[in-house]
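#onboarding

Welcome to the new folks! Below is a worked example of what a typical request in this channel looks like: someone posts a single protein sequence, and someone else replies with the predicted structure as tokens. Don't worry about understanding the tokens yet, we'll cover that in week two.

Example request:
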Amino acid sequence: ILFHDDHFLNKIIKHTSYQELNSLITINTLDELFSWFIKTENFKLNIEIKSQDIIGYKLEKKVSILIKKYQLEQRVLVSSFNPFSLLKIRLFSPEVYRALLLTFEKNKESNFIIESRILNFICRPHMLNLRYLDYSAHFRQLAHKIPIVLWTVNDLAVYLKYKYEIHGIISDSITPADLE
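Example response:
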């Protein structure tokens, strides 16, 4: 299913069936989204895989199968905080663009391997999606070598401050019209 958060109406998404969630709110599947998306033009899609799994590969395999089914290899970006998820995408669909999500805030749900970032190199990301509050001199230098997109930039002044250094933003409120 497509859902950003891990909770909805006091229910933990991963412990709730699709039927039960769908009875509360209409939930789309990735297959349904891709079916619609192939009819659009001039858009690219960022698919964030939210997984803490290190050993399994079911989710990444299913996502890769659907990307291939709809021939979307050149129109999607797969992003994740989990380098193992991106490694699996790289192995199943090497032509798909990958972005490693980064933040330096503490997250009680991350395991040590993901939180320590010691294995980030294994996923060979094409770009970094970095929490804008973590954008530092180190990342300004790195931006000359690898594209960096800042998230969640909801203040236009923050975007204007960094727009010549970064490759884009992820925002809940800034629209393309705001950038003109």
